[in-house]
Amino acid sequence: MEFHDFLHYWGKTNRSKNIISAPYHLLAYHCLDVAACGFHIIKNNTFGSKDILNKCDMTGTEAENWLVWFLASHDIGKFARGFQKYALFPDSPLVPPIKGITAFERHDSLGFYLWEELLEQWSEGENSIIAGIEPEQRSRFKGALNIWMTIGTGHHGLPPNTLKNSCSLAFSDDDFVAATHYLETLNSLFPFTLPQAWGTRSGRKALQKHSWFFAGLVTIADWMGSDETLFPLISEPMSLEEYWPLACEKARQATDKLPPLSPHSQYQSHLTLFPFIQSLTPLQKKANELDISAPGPQLVVMEDVTGAGKTEAALILAHRLMSANKGHGLYVGLPTMATANAMYKRLATAYRALFAKDARPSLILAHGGREMSDAFRQSIWQPSEEMAENYAPADSSAVSECHAWFADSRKKALLAEVGVGTIDQLLMAVMPFRHQSLRLLGMRGKILLLDEVHAYDGYMVKLLEGLLRFHAAQGGSAIILSATLPASLREKLLAAFNEGAGFSAIEGRADAGYPWLSSLSSGGLYEQLLTTRPEVQRTVAVNWIQQPQEALDIIHRVVAEGQCICWIRNTVDDALGVYQQLLREGVIPEQDLLLFHSRFMFADRLDIEEKTLSWFGKSADVSERRGKVLIATQVVEQSLDLDFDWMISDLAPVDLLIQRAGRLQRHIRDTQGNCKQQLPDERPAPVLTILAPEWQPDAERGWLGQALRGTGYVYADHGCLWRTQAVLRKTGAIRMPEEARRLVDGVYEQKIEAPPALQTVSDLEFGKILSRRSVAGQHLLREEKGYDREASDFRWDEDIELSTRLGEKSLDIYLAWLDADDRLQPVARDSEFRWEKSRLAVRESWWRKHHEKLSRPSEEILEIFRKSQHRPSAYIVLVNKNGEAPYYSKRVGLMGDTEAG
User: Fold this and answer.
1) Which residues pair with 449 in a beta bridge?
2) Which of 196, 306, 432, 631 has its CA 20 to 30 A from that of 58?
3) Exposed, middle or buried, 753 (CB in 10 Å: 0-12/13-18/19+)?
């Protein structure tokens, strides 16, 4: 052979429509393309990569050469003759297939198997794939090198399967020789010396700690180096020394397209962010002056009443932390899509002030971004559709994975400098989801702002603890907001962050008051009782009703008096039923009724949110409010800045009722409904009417009755509901802030004893909570284990079913119509993210019950959609071009067959 034997293996094939392109790209060249991208990433210290290599005892040219060698070995599994047979080029000089040699494993696992075999030979002095270490010392470095090779061969989003299984069946002896020659050639071109620290236990622990970062970096470099528009296929052989400068020039062009970090502005005062705030609330004042000088990550927990300006306080603190170089970006994680939408609108006008005037930071809403900067949107992250390729059914390419990642715009929010979305996108970073390392890479260096954390169940709380532990270990800071945080939950979150950061042991105060601020740093735990401004100190009387008709009577009375009202129901079906009953009655004009729940496609949901805010928001015109009725589910109980004259709620846990009451007479208004600056509010004293069963001191199972049957399903801890009714009957009102702890802890710390039958239910639910926490613990990745399949009790696998929420599975449904050529078209008409904006989610049981009554495309059309849009488990519901059908409308949402009648 005229050229090295390793130049007779292909690494990428021409699957595009570009017939001018070469038929294949040599494996060594593709590996150098990826290595060159990593080289420029390190040169530019992108993602802080050079700094992290320094922490791994690699500096200067040694670090650069090591990274090139390491990245250039990421695809050595493709030296397997069993892999090479996936694409045959009979008239080429490439290695021919060998009968009986077949790959039963993916090329990433093949690569790790090959590496272990070569490493064993190296440690015994049989090859020189790594120079500079005497044979008798080599065994000390095997552990560290295996950590690196797990990262490198795990570049497709999950660590390789390190069990040998049938990997040996994929290789010939010549393949081993070619791979050995390749790695030896790399080592001579890019010489380096392994740090002595890598031969020690502490050095290996440091590598494990940073392995999560490098796993994300390898994936990004692989995606970049697989972009054929920048790295065209080359089949003609040349030496690696000749090819390297060509790869470097193309990689420079590729990395130049990465949007640089925007310089942040220096914090001067809150007026930079919020020029309309003339007088800070006590919480905002504390955020403005809190000592953040301690080195390392920081966690701040803010507990205050609705309307205390928690979001503004958090952003003031975030700006100060960024100014102190404790973060370069921000991700706001919320419990629901509706709360994320609301936060997005609030941030859209303020986020630029976090950055320098000439900067162009990107802001994106995780599930339908609208304000990404051009630089971010047009960057290297997303390749063209022509590049999609597949090697084999179970062995996907970097490009196809890149498409799949970006097909869901929710993921992009983690890479934007300011992202807003549900907390699920963050939780997936600390679970064995494929490409979780990319999520961690997106989180790195960002301040996490987590709002409404009280809304999570035991399973999600455990995952949240894991998230805080991981983020603190990476040096990241976080701010947590809540109006109603049980004491035990606050303690769990502080303990998790403290453990991840490696701080000294802490102990919170048992006498925590309200409002309360907790600040945790390397300097210890600081806690303080705060005051509340008079405008948000309030007493909301509680009125009890037992029948839905009583609620309807109240609605008619309020409307007749020219005021506005909201009824929050606990299930979509109950909300639909009330809305349709009001329509049938015809007493209240249809244009004065609004329905808001979770079964609207995203674009329609945005429209409903905007209408809700135009009717009930702070800037709503008085004439818009008059006589208006909102029937809603839990989607409006958090984050939305709404103000109702009257409110009805189904019985719910006390913290949720407090949240709902926070939307009752939220703003100060005169008798006509005009906003005013100073107290008093001239409307009748606020009253929260609660639909609940007749009070039963010795309640038995089934005490909720038929009217609240759905409530009993949604809130399975009936003892919690009973204790809520008990404590509110005793107080007769919700008094904030002075009785916040009494109400919340009285229910959640079970300071009120429930009847035996319901206490049994509570005990069973508590057992389920412990079980869910145990399951969540199994699903969490352990940061100290490093990027490895052993990092979780629940192993990484292509086929596993994982969820950030333990409960009934949700399905993604897309609304579409068929054009004249029988091609699916999304209903949403916006130019960007049209499919995302045509999406909604339903429970799997709901889909099983109702899907046969919904018009759906053929299986063939559905499969084409799933593949082209990289949504393998999505479903399509057909509607007309205007988004209407007997079972769907923009006013009512998606209905089942029984509901539509």
Assistant:
1) 332, 479
2) 432
3) exposed
Low-confidence residues of the chain: pLDDT under 50: 1-2, 368-381, 383-390, 393, 898-901
Angstrom distance (rounded) from CA 21 to CA 387: 12
Cis peptide upstream of residue 135 (ω within 30 degrees of 0): no
Owner of token pair 């970096």: 217
Kindly state the helix (H) or strand (E) to which residue 245 belongs, with its residue range.
helix 240-256
* Confidence at residue 135, expressed as pLDDT on a 0 to 100 scale: 86
Tell how strand 299-303 and strand 478-482 pair up.
Answer: parallel
Q: Are 841 and 598 in contact (CB under 8 A)?
A: yes
- Phi and psi at 483, nearest 5°, equal -95, -20
> In angstroms, rounded to a whole number, what is the distance separating the alpha carbons of residues 92 and 95?
8
State the DSSP code for 321: H
Q: Are strands 593-596 and 629-632 parallel, antiparallel or unpaired?
A: parallel
**Cis ω on the peptide bond leading into residue 515 (within 30° of 0)?**
yes
CB–CB of 471/484 below 8 Å? no
Cα dihedral value 675, 681, 683, 687, nearest 10 = 120
Question: What stretch(es) of the chain map to CATH 3.40.50.300?
Answer: 278-529, 538-736
CATH architecture of 5-256: Orthogonal Bundle (1.10)
Residues of the chain with CATH 1.10.3210.30: 5-256
Q: pLDDT at position 370, please?
A: 47
Alpha-carbon gap, residue 429 to 451, rounded angstroms: 18
Nearest to 12 by CA among 86, 93, 68: 86
Mean pLDDT of the chain, nearest integer: 88
Nearest one of 898, 714, 894, 896 to 812, comparing CA atoms: 894
Block residue for tokens 């991208």:
37
pLDDT attached to residue 104: 86
Give kind and range of the element (H or E) at residue 840: strand 839-843
pLDDT of residue 366: 62
- Strand, helix or coil at 507? coil
User: Hey, what CATH class is 278-529 in?
Assistant: alpha beta
Rounded to whole angstroms, the Cα distance separating 616 from 625 reads 6
State the Cα–Cα distance between residues 530 and 541, nearest whole angstrom.
25
Report the C-alpha gap between 93 and 497 in whole angstroms. 57
Lookup: tokens for 572: 């979509």
- CA–CA dist 507, 420 (Å, integer): 32
Contact yes or no for 647/568 (Cβ under 8 A): yes
Which two tokens mark 605?
């949901």
> For 507-517, how does the pLDDT look when each residue is reduced to its tens digit (9 = 90+)?
888 778 899 99
Say what the pTM is. Answer: 0.87
Distance CA(294)–CA(444), nearest Å, equals 19
Considering the segment(s) 538-736 as one domain, its CATH architecture is 3-Layer(aba) Sandwich (3.40)
